[in-house]
Amino acid sequence: MARFTGRTAVVTGGGSGIGAMTARRIASEGGTVILVGRTEEKLKRTANELKDLEGTVLTCVADVTKQADIESLTSFVKEKTDSLHILINNAGGSQGSPILEMSEENWDHAQSVNLKSVFLVSKALGKLMLDTAKENNSLEDLSIVNVASLSGHKAGAQIPHYSAAKAAVINFTRALAVELSPYIRVNSVSPGFVETPLTEAGLKNERFEASIKRNTVLNRVGQPDEIANVIAFAASTEASYMTGSDLLVDGGWLIV
Predict the structure, then answer these.
(1) How far apart are CA 36 and CA 27, in angstroms?
(2) Active-site annotation, residues
(3) Residues 125-139: pLDDT tens digits?
(4) How far is Cα 78 from Cα 103, in angstroms, rounded to an integer?
(5) What is the DSSP letter of 220?
(6) Is a pLDDT exceeding 90 seen at residue 35?
(7) Predicted TM-score (pTM) of this structure
(8) 95: Cβ–Cβ under 8 A, 6 or more apart, which residues?
(9) Does the keyword Oxidoreductase apply (predicted)?
(10) Which domains does the chain have, with CATH numbers?
(11) pLDDT, averaged across the chain
């Protein structure tokens, strides 16, 4: 049996990049995936690309930084599935700026999309998962995976707001793992530099791409499927004795 047969997962930031590839991995192994994002067109395009896989793919347009949208998402999940087994908090991003030149709006946006979203979605859907588990008196393996970043482990030039938010995601993951035990496992995955639509512009700069390779032991940029494979592992029953952990997938950057 495939790892995700009979299991339902919500993936935020599911319209492209790591989120879309994670959805592909789960759906290819029989899971039902609910893609969540702000742009309906991107969600529908990704869902169409995944339609021939073994699992089922649904879409829900929502801004995961807004409480009203989270409530709509929760209602959608309740309507479409009997039980939620997996939550992947993948939404995130930032606009670079030195600290001394950064606007308050830029700082607040980074905290909202990278950290507040994890809190809001985990609170709402975590409660849904926990209530179902307690109601059924079940210790069936349930999992939350938060996508953090290498930048949560080390300072990043031009992205102090992003680094701060992702470091907080790693620590929030640990706190949530304690609160939701023993019913729900909570782990985080910290990617290094990965080729996605968000990094596409930077990689067009040959000097920038060369610096990424130079600082990475594996001497290359990561691919979304390489991160998705680790997220899928953490979400699956194969990781059933792991909670409160952060899995660093950075090509060896941090050890240089």
Answers:
(1) 15
(2) 162
(3) 999 999 999 988 888
(4) 39
(5) S
(6) yes
(7) 0.95
(8) 106, 109, 110
(9) yes
(10) 8-255 (3.40.50.720)
(11) 95
